[in-house]
């Protein structure tokens, strides 16, 4: 996909989802970090239902360490992989207290040292909590990038991220991340994508393949 086509694609998605934003409810960098950690293999909607009570009960790292692990597990039981995530949260909180004075670090390399925090989570925190341009590649961003030809089908998550960083202006990285997520979550879904009404279907091999049976059927009918 050349630069002109990418520009048109980004502008089209921007028109489709002008209000794209981080949908994880949070009020500070610490809460955002916990929410993103919980969101792995789980919907933002489910995470928000859990964090309504979680963030009332636990307001700072010390709070998560003041209860037995089993109690924290029970508090996030509705979240997938809740046992592993509860353990990560307590380890993360201990490290944040011991090494960072109780505050979430503002450097990407330090964020990825935290238990349960990978590159994607660090990118989300950097961009949304600290206003540092970043593109976090989740399942939606990866799927959309590959379907639209911005990245290759066999590209790794890191390769997708690097290609997006090269092809998207840096001052648009964060908003593009949100728009690609909205496009993938509400339009270009993993199952039953809205190819028949997609203004970008001409760039999507999968979409064009999906549309062929319908075209052939209409031709036979005529």
From TrEMBL:
Classification via Pfam families: EndIII_4Fe-2S, HHH, HhH-GPD
Molecular function via GO: class I DNA-(apurinic or apyrimidinic site) endonuclease activity
Protein task: DNA repair enzyme that has both DNA N-glycosylase activity and AP-lyase activity. The DNA N-glycosylase activity releases various damaged pyrimidines from DNA by cleaving the N-glycosidic bond, leaving an AP (apurinic/apyrimidinic) site. The AP-lyase activity cleaves the phosphodiester bond 3' to the AP site by a beta-elimination, leaving a 3'-terminal unsaturated sugar and a product with a terminal 5'-phosphate.
Binding site for [4Fe-4S] cluster: 188, 195, 198, 204
Catalytic activity: 2'-deoxyribonucleotide-(2'-deoxyribose 5'-phosphate)-2'-deoxyribonucleotide-DNA = a 3'-end 2'-deoxyribonucleotide-(2,3-dehydro-2,3-deoxyribose 5'-phosphate)-DNA + a 5'-end 5'-phospho-2'-deoxyribonucleoside-DNA + H(+)
Keywords of this entry: 4Fe-4S, DNA damage, DNA repair, DNA-binding, Endonuclease, Glycosidase, Hydrolase, Iron, Iron-sulfur, Lyase, Metal-binding, Nuclease
Cofactor note: Binds 1 [4Fe-4S] cluster.
Gene: nth
Protein name: Endonuclease III
Enzyme Commission designation: 4.2.99.18
Cofactor(s) required, per the database record: [4Fe-4S] cluster
Family statement: Belongs to the Nth/MutY family.
């Amino acid at each position: 996909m050349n630069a002109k086509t990418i520009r048109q694609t980004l502008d089209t998605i921007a028109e489709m989802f002008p209000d794209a934003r981080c949908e994880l409810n949070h009020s500070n960098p610490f809460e955002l970090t916990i929410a993103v950690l919980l969101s792995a293999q789980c919907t933002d909607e489910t995470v928000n239902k859990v964090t309504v009570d979680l963030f009332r009960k636990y307001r700072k790292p010390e709070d998560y360490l003041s209860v037995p692990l089993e109690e924290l597990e029970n508090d996030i039981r509705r979240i997938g992989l809740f046992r592993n995530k509860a353990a990560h949260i307590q380890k993360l909180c201990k490290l944040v207290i011991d090494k960072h004075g109780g505050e979430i670090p503002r450097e990407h390399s330090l964020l990825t040292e935290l238990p349960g925090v990978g590159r994607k989570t660090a990118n989300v925190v950097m961009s949304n909590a600290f206003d540092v341009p970043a593109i976090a590649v989740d399942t939606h961003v990866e799927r959309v990038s590959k379907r639209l030809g911005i990245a290759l089908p066999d590209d790794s998550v890191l390769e997708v991220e690097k290609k997006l960083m090269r092809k998207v202006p840096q001052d648009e990285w964060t908003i593009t991340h949100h728009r690609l997520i909205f496009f993938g979550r509400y339009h270009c879904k993993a199952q039953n994508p809205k190819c028949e009404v997609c203004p970008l279907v001409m760039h999507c091999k999968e979409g064009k393949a999906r549309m062929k049976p319908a075209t052939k059927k209409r031709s036979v009918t005529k």
